Amino acid sequence: MQLIDIGANLTHDSFDRDRDAVLRRARDAGVSQLVVTGASREHSPKALALAQAHPGVLFSTAGVHPHHAVEYTEECDAEMRALHAHPEVVAVGETGLDYFRDFSPRPAQRKAFERQLQIGVDFAVNGVGKPLFLHQRDAHADFMAIMKQFDGQLGPAVVHCFTGTREELFDYLDQDWHIGITGWLCDERRGAHLREIVKNIPANRLMVETDAPYLLPRTLRPMPKDRRNEPSFLPHIVEELARDRNESTETAAAESTATAAAFFRLPAVGS
């Protein structure tokens, strides 16, 4: 079983002490490729550097999360564009809107989101925009409105770490966007509704991710003492997802891997 973790925050300082061991455990668990999330001016270059150190296995995104939207200046835009010139950077983001925490003012979030969508348009290949790695929480209406401004210009999009409602899910699927499912699925307090609606996601729109070190699956046994999530736990999420979709783990793994490889335009493992 080979898996692709489409979202792991491997530049997080909690991995500084044992990052190589984390990657070995991921490989041993069947996670053959990972996309390292870049979500700020500080961490997007680090994500690229990590991908360059592990060619063919790690790839990265480059972007500014809405929590950090106030840092999205002209200089920041230039920095992001320079990062996207590197082939290891396979998607724009993490970008989007987060009205749940409002760590940045909403006008700043919207402006940063628009600027990064424009990067996706400008870095099109053969007329197809660069893949987008998107975040949306409690901002659905504004999120959809901003995406609509770019109708016909954007490349493939994934709403990563999907935790939303059935209505939001179908809005995204109606746009042919992809959905990233995390260990939130395993949270009986907040994610129970996902168990019902994940079966509605077409296989060619469904991908899996850990969002490590966050979102440790609550059904994982044994639980790590430090409560840190890591990519080697991705098979557990796939097992839970497969059960909820009434399919075999092997089917869920193969289909999500094929979808992720096509979405991010990844080379075959070992090539």
Mind explaining what this structure looks like?
With 271 residues, the chain is α/β, with parallel strands linked by helices. The chain has a single domain (3-264), classed as TIM Barrel, CATH 3.20.20.140. The protein is built from 9 helices and 8 strands. It has an 8-stranded parallel β-sheet. Helix 4 (106-122) runs parallel beside helix 5 (140-148) and helix 8 (234-244) packs across helix 9. The chain is globular.
Quick recap of the structure?
This protein is an alpha/beta fold and 271 residues long. The chain contains 9 helices and 8 strands.
> What is the C-alpha radius of gyration, as a whole number of Å?
17 Å
Question: In percent, how much strand structure appears in the residues?
Answer: 15-25%
Oligomerization state: single chain
Q: What is the count of helical runs? A: 9
Give start-end ranges of low-pLDDT stretches: none
CATH superfamily: Metal-dependent hydrolases
* CATH architecture descriptor text: Alpha-Beta Barrel
Level-1 CATH class name: Alpha Beta
Strand order of the largest sheet: 1-2-3-4-5-6-7-8
* Count of extended strands: 8
Arithmetic mean of pLDDT: 97
In whole angstroms, the N-to-C terminal distance is 18 Å
CATH topology: TIM Barrel
| Silhouette | globular
Tally of distinct domains: 1
| Major beta sheet summary | 8 strands, parallel
Order of helix and strand elements from N to C terminus: EHEHEHEHEHEHEHEHH
What structural class do the secondary elements suggest?
Answer: alpha/beta
The helix fraction, in percent, is 25-40%
